Amino acid sequence: MSNRIEDNREERIIMEKSFNTNRRTFLKAASAALIGATGFGIIGCAPQGSSSGDAKTAVAATGTDVIWDDEFDVVVIGAGCAGQAAALTVALEGDGATCLLAEKGDTPGGNSPYCKGTIVYADDEEAFLQYMLEMRGEEGTTPDEVLAAYAKGAVENYSWVFDTLGASLEEASVLPPTTRDNPLTAKPEWPEYEHCYALGKFTVAGNKDVEIKGDKHITELLGRVIDDHSDAIEYRTSAPMEELIQDPTTKRIIGAVIDGKNVKANRGVIMCTGGFEANPTMRQDFIGQGGAEPAINGLNTGDGHKACMKIGADFWHMEHVAGFWMAGRDLENTKFTNNQIISPCPKQYGITVGVNGRRYYMDWDGYSNKSDIAYMDDPSVSVGSRHGHMQIGGEWPHLAQPRKAWFVFDQAGLEAGAIPADTTSDPVADKLAYSADTIEDLASQMGVPADELTATVDQWNECCANGKDVYFHRPEKTLTPISTPPFYAQLCCPSFLNTDGGPVRSAQGEILDPDGKPIPNLYSAGEFGSVWSGVYQGGGNIAECLIFGRISARSALANA
């Protein structure tokens, strides 16, 4: 295990050199105190305020004392599932410890409320760890011991949610782990891996046989229990974090500037600020997709990344995202036309082409009709997407999508649901699609070469007639011809739910510096520096929020 840690450290050094070449724009938003700093900006900042909360920023090296406006044992930044889990752990296990849960938005934040709420869990810790290692693969950079902490936490997830928090098992949907002989019960994302049977999944409100009367999502459960512990947790909304406050001598994190106030954290600060989905510059710098559109709110702008970079954190997995898929947009590219998470575009009714008029990938994103394809029983089937991972050359990387593409279908496809009927009855009048009686005229409206689009449609129709996509191997049930005029073209752009990159995290939830040393009293949870570095298992991010929310809170509480 130690050899792997050293290998990972060497890999991160190489990544850091590359990282430094394109982070210039990223750092423009950082304080002028960074000027002249080396590496990741080791100079820290210590805000100086007054009792009125009128905070100013001063360089820590001056030794200026901080005037505190508030004081808590633990400060949690971000109130998505990760922050909620961390705050609850402080309340439940802190023996009277106090916690501030600070949320940038005016409601429980981040991406958590918008996901399906599926949570990964396990019964067999060792077997589940092996599944995590298989998903990491040879190229992943998350150390064994961090994945081991995840696996241990996955075993705790079930009892913590249902026993400790009191979720209704009657209203829940549970797909339990199984055995080697029957590995597909929980529908693992990667059924070809030997230990996929160790996977279990549940949702707190997924049982469709009962009327949901209680918590309809994991965020609602966590929020309700937080309300029950208001004696220990002070929950503030519309309270953005502006800076971390670092002791200039010890480098210990002693607090944060939150909504203009200096807030002291006696035992630690836990960063649960999510990703940088809503920051176009960071999207372009780190994932090469500045033109992509995040599926949900615009709050995750990389605030936590900037703060941690300024105090000397190391970073990893900045290129990892949950996505991409090509989602349907209106012709002016101002809004999604479909549920961009669950059914980004019903691709089984047509094909996707780039601005050159050609197909460029298996243009079936897998969300709309995955249940109709028995790929779980045959991993050799190259389904279009496994949570954004695309099969390319027998491997499953994240496919970088073009900024703009077109979903092309015909009248029969429209009637079958290419653009859902609850979206529009007339996509042309509603400016959701172009229409033409010929492929050549459609190409003219799209601005793509008519000869290329015509050849592509002809090739596709031949594949449909022969029952085999010889170009990109789409499943047979998705081979829908484009032959009945009028023909339609809908604009698409890359969409995704979340980024995974952020500060490097230890097995104890500590945020590490480039030398692999913990920055004292600074922790993280959730998608802010996620442990996912290979392929991704659905339900794994929410599970990580709960797991490292608990781990980081326990680590902070240990700082008596």
- Report the total helices: 11
Global outline: globular
Could you name the ranges where pLDDT drops below 50 across 5 or more consecutive residues?
A: 1-63
CATH topology of the largest domain: FAD/NAD(P)-binding domain
CATH superfamily of the largest domain: FAD/NAD(P)-binding domain
Question: Major sheet, described briefly?
Answer: 8 strands, mixed
Describe this structure in words.
- Residues 1-63 have low confidence and may be disordered.
- This protein folds into two domains: 2-114 and 215-320 and 500-557, FAD/NAD(P)-binding domain (3-Layer(bba) Sandwich), CATH 3.50.50.60; 322-497, Alpha-Beta Complex (Flavocytochrome C3, Chain A, domain 1), CATH 3.90.700.
- 25% of the residues lie in helices and 19% in strands.
- It is globular and about 75 Å long.
- α3 crosses α4, α4 crosses α11 (540-557) and α9 crosses α10.
- The strands form five sheets. Strands 3, 4, 8, 9, 10, 11, 20 and 21 form an eight-stranded mixed beta sheet that branches. Strands 12, 14, 15, 16, 17 and 18 form a six-stranded mixed beta sheet that branches. A three-stranded antiparallel beta sheet has the order 5-7-6.
- By secondary structure, it is an alpha+beta fold.
- The two termini are 30 Å apart.
- It has helices at 2-21, 81-93, 125-136, 144-164, 218-227, 280-287, 303-310, 411-416, 439-446, 450-466, 540-557; strands spanning 45-48, 56-59, 70-77, 99-102, 119-121, 173-175, 200-203, 233-236, 241-246, 253-258, 261-271, 293-294, 315-316, 321-328, 350-353, 405-410, 434-436, 487-499, 502-503, 510-512, 518-524.
- It is built from eleven helices and 21 strands.
- The longest helix is centred in the first third of the chain and has 21 residues, at 144-164.
